[in-house]
Amino acid sequence: MKKTLFTGIILVATSTFGCATMAQQPPRVDIGSRHGNLRDAQQHIVQAWQLISTAQYDNDSRLGGHAARAKELLNEANEELRLAADVANEHER
Length: 93
Prior knowledge:
Blueprint: H1 2-23, H2 36-58, H3 66-90
């Protein structure tokens, strides 16, 4: 029983750490100049993510989880921009 409980705790901790690590990967600009507006939007997302990181550091990460959530949403927005560029490429635009 103790071994099963310990294994469960380890699995939960590992998956939680893995998700937290993934969520904290900074976005990157990966759209070429062919789609200038989308690339510019990505650059602004990267800048916003960096500013939020600075705010987290300056506030000792005591922002109620909202800054971390904002960073997650920025990562999602960055991915959506990448997908938009991919679709435009498929349609040769």
